[in-house]
Amino acid sequence: MPESVEQKIQTVFAEQSRRVLATLIRLLGDFDLAEDALQEAFIAALKQWPQEGIPEQPRAWLVSAGRFKAIDQLRRRARYHEILQQQADVLAAQAVVNMEEENAGIADDRLRLIFTCCHPSLAPEAQVALTLREVCGLTTEEIASAFLQKTPTVAQRIVRAKGKIRDAGIPYEVPEGDALLERLQSVLQVIYLVFNEGYLSSSADETVRHDLGDEAIRLAELLNQLLPEPQPEAMGLWALMLLHHARRHTRLDAEGELVLLDEQDRSQWDRDDIARADALVRHSLSSQRFGAYTLQAAIAGVHAQSPSAEQTDWTEIVGLYDLLQQHMPTPVVALNRAVAIAMRDGPEAGLEALHPLMEDKALRQYHLAHAARADMHRRLGKLSEARHDYEQAMRLTEQPAEQRFLRRRIAELAK
Amino acid sequence: MNYLCLVYYSEAAMQERGDDHWQNLNKECQSYSGGLQESGVMLDGSALQPVSTATTVRVRDGQVSVTDGPFAETKEQLAGFYLIEARDLNDAIRVASKIPPARYGSIEVRPVRDIYGESSDAVPYAEALGRR
Question: Where do the RNA polymerase sigma-70 region domain residues begin and end (chain A) (predicted)?
């Protein structure tokens, strides 16, 4: 059955609405006005396109229609506001003069939108909500349900963020020079927050939420396409998420229980994702400007490409952790390095590496540190120490799936 | 847009760094604010005496109450301010990040509100449209 005009319009809208919005925000200088204009442009398209046919450049048509609808709207309300009348005149004059110039800028508009939504002067949760709403086009309800929050809470967060953008003068621009690298970190962090929220929810029993993970990967892909020159860490983050994503069908068993990396069914891992990630990691590493995301992706890549858990190249992994420690000297990285050492040199060496780390208060409160030590003790046959550590780990996590997993491990010790 | 950059640091920690450090920091501040004034970026600004000199005034039910000290005890104290004109927040952040005490304390950047009526380019549409 051929697509109806309405269906075609829906397709155009699904493909173009975020781009049109990004451009309208730049042209109109206001998020709310741009969103209304986008709606009006779409309504106009639904009326006109079935009769006149779909224009050759639907995006330009929608931008232009949205822009004039906004000017009309300002004019209608301007009867009572002289300043609004001036605004409408200014916008109308710009609309005539700058059409060509603006078309040249359109490619950058989505990047401007990303950098504005991820501006570090907005609270992290506001950056996340605003990015999902404005860049990804999720509804407020969808964002709220993904983060297990109330819709009015998220709605208010978005309203406040837009208010701050306007009142504090957060510019609609892609930062240049050194500022670009600093601000890119903020963008990457938002994308990774979105991904992690989808990857492992800490608050719900529903352990894996694919939607946010997919959304984060799409965002990373878009960011990499839009950046004026390749950015190693943007590639690194994209690769890292692809590698986690490649294992999405094997992280849980049929009963919904967590399955550890070494017990996952590798034949089910998504080879396309892994190959894409591998190319990205290599590209980033060769730039010599890589950082923590790339190194984490490289580690995940070694695991992903190893034919079996037994054949994992632990020497390479320990080496990558050594590098990662320089970029990210955190207790958790040190913990993972100790685990890798235990795999390369045996549990005794692992315990030796882990011992000084447990001096760290934060790590002592981290359930996976105790679970790691339990595993080393188990491999050494020190079963009562292992049991003690697993129990400690249980006390420190509230995640039901992880609690069940630890309980299974304790039960296995008795066998 | 105009922004007020409020300079905060811990007076106690600053004192511990000694006299030479203090003198050098003052010179650095003079030269930075001098440059900003010359280029027209800085509209006003000043260093402040320590909080031990502060007096807090309140009026409640028509009664003036005067108390010793700042309005709130904080880890870092207000030590000075720069009133600047900047293109936008990114521009203001660039200026603020070079204020010398930013290396020790914090700079709070606040957009200035014009209570005599917003200038025409600063009118938020949503507000004018009656949506707020």
Answer: 17-79
Residues of A in Cβ contact (< 8 Å) with B128: 77, 81, 83-84, 87
Q: Do A170 and B88 touch (CB under 8 A)?
A: yes
Domains recognised in chain B with CATH numbers = 2-114 (3.30.70.1060)
What average pLDDT does chain A have? Answer: 89
- How many angstroms separate the CA atoms of A218 and A201, rounded? 20
| Residue in B3, B89, B131 closest to A171 by CB | B89
Any A CB within 8 A of B115 CB: no
**B-chain residues within 8 Å CB-CB of A77?**
128-130
A318 and A367 share one domain = yes
Q: Report residue A168 as tokens.
A: 């504090």
What's the CA gap between A354 and A351, in Å, rounded?
5
| Dihedrals phi, psi of A253, to nearest 5 degrees | -90, -175
Q: Which pLDDT belongs to residue A9?
A: 86
Give tens-digit pLDDT for A239-283: 999 999 999 889 888 887 888 888 999 999 999 999 999 999 999
Say how many C-beta atoms besides its own lie within 10 A of residue A156's C-beta: 13
CA A342 to each of CA A317, A353, B94: distance values in angstroms, whole numbers, following the listed order? 12, 8, 47
Nearest residue on chain A to B119, alpha-carbon basis:
A83
pLDDT tens digits for range A131-147: 999 999 889 998 888 88
What's the angle, vertex CA A162, arms to CA A157 and CA A164, rounded to 5?
A: 95
Q: Is residue A110 domain-shared with residue A51, that is, in the same domain?
A: no
